[in-house]
Structures are given as C-alpha cells and as structure tokens.
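Example record for the data management plan.
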Amino acid sequence: MNKAKKFHVETFGCQMNVNDSEKVAGLLLADGHERAAGPDDADFVFINTCAVREKASEKLFHAVGRLARAKQERGLVIGVGGCVAQLSGRAILDRAPQVDLLVGTHTVARVPELLRTAGAGAAPVVDLDRTADTFSIPAEAVAHSSAVRAYVTVIEGCNHVCSFCVVPRTRGPEVCRDASDVVDEVASLVERGYPEVMLLGQTVNAYLRDGVDFAGLLERVSAVRGLRRLRFTTSHPEHVDARLAEAMGSLPKVCPYLHLPVQSGSDRILADMRRGYTAAEYRDKAALLRAHVPNLALTSDIIVGYPGEDEAAFEETAALVDAIGFDGLFVFTYSPRPGTTAVRLADDVPQDEKLRRLKVLNDRQQRFQGRRNAERVGRTEEVLVDTVGERGRVSGRTPDFRIVHFDGGAADLGRLVPVRTDASGPNSLSGRRLDIPVAAASPAPIF
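Corresponding structural encoding:
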C-alpha cells in the first residue's frame, strides 16, 4: 500500500478552488499525513486547477513538468484536481503521463482514499464522478489557510449559460446547501476565533433552498453571535434585487463590498455572451445597490476581445466603466474555452489588439483608483489585520476591502485596528495605528 507521508497543495483559480484545496489538506491531515515545507520536501503534490481561461489551464502542465524530475528520482506522487481535471478528464494523462491521481470538482473528498493506491508504478487512479456529494466533507475537517478569513461554500455549480464560460461543465448545475448547515459551520468558525467569513458560490446570490433566498441566508448568518464581518462572492447581476440591496444596507455585519462581473458594456456583446441583461440594466442594478449602501465598493470583471467586439463595442465598455466608477476592475483577454458555445465563433480580435484594450482599461482604472484612494487620506479606517509582513509591517482590509498597511506585529493578526491613513496609491492605503478602541472590537485569538 502506497501512503505518502508529506503533502503539498498548489492552487490555481478562484476562492472556491482555494476552499477545495483547504478541504483536501484537512482530509489528508486527518488521514495521518503531514504538511511539507514545499514541493521539494513532499511525497505527494496535489495540483488544484482552474479552467476559466486558457493561461490558467496551461499552468497545470507547467507545474507537472516542474515535478517530473522529482517523480523520476524519488517517486513523487502527483495528483491533479479541479476544473481542468473535470473538463479534460483522461486527456490530461495523454499530455502529462506523470500524473498518478486524477479527481474532479465533485470528488476531492476521495483524495486520501485514492492516494493509498496511487503511484509506485501503478496505473493512474481516476475518479471524475459528477454525481458525488460536494458538501459531504465535515466542516471541522477543513484546514483553512487563513487565521482571519474563512471561506464557506454555500452553493456549487451554475445554471447560467454564458457563451464563454466552462463552469457549468466543470461544476455542474446549481446545488445549494441547507441554510442551517451553513449557519452551523459559521458558528463553529466563530467559536474557533475567526472574525470574518466569506460565503462562496460560482453564482452565490442565486442561492435558494427550502424558501430561503440569499438575502435570507445573509440574515441568518449575520445573526451568529461573535461574527464581526460577513462577505460573499461571486454574484451575478440577474440575482441583484431589492431584497439583496436591503439586506446589504440593513445588516451591519455584511461588508459594503460587492464583486459583480459585467463582462462588457456593449448590449450586442452582452447578448452574444448570453449574460441576460443590458448595460443600462446593469447601471440600474448598481444604482439600486448604492441607494441602499452609499459607501459600497463595487468591483467587476471585463472580457476584452470577445469575438465580434469591434472598436465601437469596446468604447461602449470603456464608457460603462467610466459611468459606474468601479473600485476595482479585473480585465481579461478573451480566450476560447473547450465545450463553450463561443468556441465555435471566429476569434477575430488580434492578440495585440486585445492587449491594447486591456491596457487602456487597466490604465484608466488605476488612475481612477489612485484618485479615489487619495480622497481617503486623513481618514480613520477600521482595519482587520490579516497579514504580518517583514520589518514590523502588517496589513489588513477595511470593511469595503481596501488594503491598508501600517506598523505592527504578530499580535495584531485577527484584530480590528483603527488606522489613520497618511498615504495612498492606486491599490492600497498606508497609515499609522491609533491608540483608541474600535467599537465592539475585542481581539480574535492568534493561531
């Protein structure tokens, strides 16, 4: 029986992939394995993959290639999971025969069991069962990677049919957890000292189970005693309504931050993408949210170079970005993904033009963020410290998710600290701590 003693997990992709990796790590620890210092010290390396963009999926094969020598010289066992595994299946083994273990997005719970027979010259072990229960892993088994912010998956899969997206193929249709299970997990995390929880889903605000919608779920989770901050990601514009806006505005623990991908500002491109809204309807959603949450930080995703996006369509996107005034923007160049409807379209925007458009939006956004952050210099910000750096510096997040750096130490981790800002850049603020307590803020345990 082959049993790796030390493991290392590499994660590519979104917060849901991170949460899946935390589950794998926790299950391996419970099965008697130990964390390795890194891949060079590991007996088993598990690579958790993302398939949303071509570059993300290519990272898998680069990572496996780097491990090939260790496999040959010391019998390293290599496992692959996540969206690329679910999407490509056994085809991964043709390109990367070094892989010993292959699991899909629904079967990460089986990694310790499958590992017992993987490697040592045996045939690759493959389990891509799409019918497996994705919520079967006990909450206490999850090895959260942060001591401050814990991820809790509340919905898996997506029922939307966006033309460019592989998620319905890799994660399947929407499946929601029971609300009481979510509340119980959050309560257990608070008891363990976590001040902040982030609820996860590919389309998290589509949550609906047994008459509880997403606004209702926020209400129930917010009622957990001791929870300081509640976040969620990622949302779809279709599911933004008055109920959600009112919940965000009336529940003090829900942070004034929302990531709401728009993808394009052109109605023609949005229709081709099958996004289900127009640019004007997106603007109306943003206005509704800001009417209930005046200090809302709104961030978004944009795809440039989608098939058929001419200069006029791109200018419409740039105009929407200007009109909304996003607090953060993640711009990506379009890449055809297997199994999507858009893959049948001509990828007719040259790569250099895609990169030009990406740069135009990023440069514009950086200037806007620089101006907006400069307006906050001199204010007192409530910072939840989540990172301890070198040379006496720490950093953390404001309620609206802005990064703030200041002088501190390990004892600040997990604490809410008042900071008077004195400098800014496009992506962060910096300042000095104040010797005054933050209202209703007692220190969280240090892990």
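Summary line stored alongside the record: The chain has a mean pLDDT of 94.
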